[in-house]
Amino acid sequence: MEMSDLQIGLIVLGLLFVAGVLAFNWWQDRRARARMQVPFPEGGTDPLMAEEASARPATAKEAGRREPGLHEDEAAAPRAREERKEESDEPDPTCEVVIELHFPEPVVGKELALELERLKEASNKSYRIFARTFDQAHRVGLRGHESYGLVQVAVLMVNRNGPLTDIEWSQIWLCLQEIAEKFDATMDGPDQKKVVEKAASLDETCAALDMQLGVAIVLEPPKKSQDVMFVARSCGFVQTGNVLHLPTRGRKPPHVTLVIQGLDNPAKSDVQISRLDMLLDVPRSEPQERPFGKMLETAVRLAQKLEAQLVDDQGRPIEPGCEEAIDQQVRELYQKMQALGLPAGHPRTLRVFS
């Protein structure tokens, strides 16, 4: 049966419509890919294998700094002085990957901070926010009263949960793309494939450096938690939240923590305790001459006061003199971490071993 002119016309119009939709989708896809294809910084050497050209020693202020967040408004005069002050901290290219948002008009920090909260749902990797005001002042974190023309989101590539994955990167990118579209901003960031490859390589490096040393104190018969807590405090342990640890200088992370098995809240006094675990997190601790030896001395003293047995983390009796060999291994690890740009206890190291 021959088709009428009307039928032929409708078919032609349908084909043209489909072709138009396909062309529009192709154009949208090409534009999105173009945004994502900003090249990852290339270099002649692996940043983990050599000192960075712009590296500088960490100051005491940097070593104890807090992660940036939204700052509350302060008094007018101090705030005016702060607005004129530059902040020196920058994204760390060794362990962070940066996506930039460029705003055509000033955007208030409070509004931006609310939008960026959505990033917490996109990945288990932490991120830091850096920004530049329209009068070119550099900021670490956002301040509610200021307006910004540039925001940098520095995403951590690795933590103890593993490297940044394709899925995580895509979710982060999509979240920031939606924010960019809301404010008519342009977005720049590195190529996804290079990001994922670099994250996997850094993860392999960190896995080879990760060392946690532990000893256990076995109580037979069990003792009440209030008695155990009293003895632990007499041996120098302090409580921060629900964590017992030996004190450190300033805001440094604890070198040695004490885990009381079966006690989720140290405030409870009537729980029967049969085991304590003392842990030394080597990458997150500042280098010491005898890190394991000092922990073992504390563990021996604690076990004696509790009339308990001291064993290794596998439940075997601890051999006399083993601390010398273990401390030597730790010192060798310190040297290796330093050579790879991840010194023990350094802010960068604390981030990737979080």
From TrEMBL:
<keyword id="KW-0812">Transmembrane</keyword>
<comment type="similarity">
    <text>Belongs to the ZipA family.</text>
</comment>
<dbReference type="GO" id="GO:0000917">
    <property type="term" value="P:division septum assembly"/>
</dbReference>
<keyword id="KW-0997">Cell inner membrane</keyword>
<keyword id="KW-0472">Membrane</keyword>
<dbReference type="GO" id="GO:0032153">
    <property type="term" value="C:cell division site"/>
</dbReference>
<keyword id="KW-0132">Cell division</keyword>
<feature type="domain" description="ZipA C-terminal FtsZ-binding">
    <location>
        <begin position="209"/>
        <end position="330"/>
    </location>
</feature>
<feature type="transmembrane region" description="Helical">
    <location>
        <begin position="6"/>
        <end position="27"/>
    </location>
</feature>
<feature type="region of interest" description="Disordered">
    <location>
        <begin position="42"/>
        <end position="93"/>
    </location>
</feature>
<feature type="compositionally biased region" description="Basic and acidic residues">
    <location>
        <begin position="62"/>
        <end position="87"/>
    </location>
</feature>
<protein>
    <recommendedName>
        <fullName>Cell division protein ZipA</fullName>
    </recommendedName>
</protein>
<keyword id="KW-1133">Transmembrane helix</keyword>
<keyword id="KW-0131">Cell cycle</keyword>
<dbReference type="InterPro" id="IPR011919">
    <property type="entry name" value="Cell_div_ZipA"/>
</dbReference>
<comment type="function">
    <text>Essential cell division protein that stabilizes the FtsZ protofilaments by cross-linking them and that serves as a cytoplasmic membrane anchor for the Z ring. Also required for the recruitment to the septal ring of downstream cell division proteins.</text>
</comment>
<keyword id="KW-1003">Cell membrane</keyword>
<dbReference type="Pfam" id="PF04354">
    <property type="entry name" value="ZipA_C"/>
</dbReference>
<dbReference type="GO" id="GO:0005886">
    <property type="term" value="C:plasma membrane"/>
</dbReference>
<dbReference type="InterPro" id="IPR036765">
    <property type="entry name" value="ZipA_FtsZ-bd_C_sf"/>
</dbReference>
<dbReference type="InterPro" id="IPR007449">
    <property type="entry name" value="ZipA_FtsZ-bd_C"/>
</dbReference>
